[in-house]
Amino acid sequence: MIVGMGRWEPNARGRLEQAALELYVERGYEQTTVAEIAERAGLTERTFFRHFADKREVLFAGAGALQELLVTAVAGAPDAVAPLEAVAAALEAAGALLQERREYSRRRQSVIDANHLTLTPYSNAFGKSNFRRKGKGEFYRSAGRHGRVEIKTNTPGTDVAGLGGE
Questions:
Q1: Which of 18-22, 37-41, 76-80 has the lowest mean pLDDT?
Q2: Where a domain ends, among 22, 40, 59?
Q3: In CATH, what number is assigned to the domain containing residue 48?
Q4: Distance between first and last Cα of the chain
Q5: How many other C-beta atoms are found inside a 10 Å radius of the C-beta of residue 32?
Q6: What is the four-CA torsion angle of 40, 38, 111, 55, rounded to 10 degrees?
Q7: How many separate domains does the chain show?
Q8: Separation of alpha carbons 149 and 52, rounded Å
Q9: Which of 17, 49, 123, 158 has the most crowded Cβ, counting Cβ within 10 A?
Q10: What is the pLDDT of residue 3?
Q11: What is the pLDDT of residue 9?
Q12: Which domain covers residue 27, as residue numbers?
């Protein structure tokens, strides 16, 4: 089903996420192309790549927002608040966000499970593009400044893993 939305419609990123998930559920992750995702969203491939590095990233896009929400909530807690209370408040905020996206999250998880896709926590903005642009050595040095980095794929021999930090 192709949706005829114009490029000027708002929320291009959200439309791409929704289109990708629909196609992954209907056709499978491996059988879905970026061109099909963009077409379903009523956008161009170029617009897709303005928002996401690849079709895998669109599936894991919410992880960064959730991480940012948690970090911001803990960092923004008043100094008088005990650390455990700050974490509890952050988890409450995350719970509210997850509740809003509950059905989407269930569908997303079914795609991840069916295709054996995993992404351990790391920043997409830092990871994949830096690996391509700077090469493996610089990627691992950057990873050392940010902690553990591990990217797993469902294709044997294509995993990238590094351990950094103290």
A1: 76-80
A2: 59
A3: 1.10.10.60
A4: 50
A5: 22
A6: 170
A7: 2
A8: 19
A9: 17
A10: 53
A11: 75
A12: 12-59
pLDDT recorded at residue 45: 96
Find tokens 């192709």 and name the residue.
2
Does residue 106 sit within a domain?
no
Q: Please state the rounded mean pLDDT for residues 76-91.
A: 91
Whole-angstrom CA distances from 166 to 31, 81, 151, 161 are 41, 28, 20, 16
pLDDT for the residue numbered 155: 45
| CA 143 to chain CA centroid, nearest Å | 18
User: What are the residue ranges of helices labelled H in the chain?
Assistant: 12-27, 34-41, 45-51, 55-59, 61-75, 83-100, 102-115, 128-134, 136-146
Domain annotation covers residue 113? no
What is the pLDDT averaged over residues 85-98?
90
- Residue 107 maps to a domain: no
The average pLDDT across 69-96 equals: 90
Q: What order of strands is seen across the sheet that includes strand 160-162?
A: 118-119, 149-152, 160-162
Confidence of residue 119 (pLDDT cuts 50, 70, 90): low
The predicted pLDDT at position 50 comes to: 96
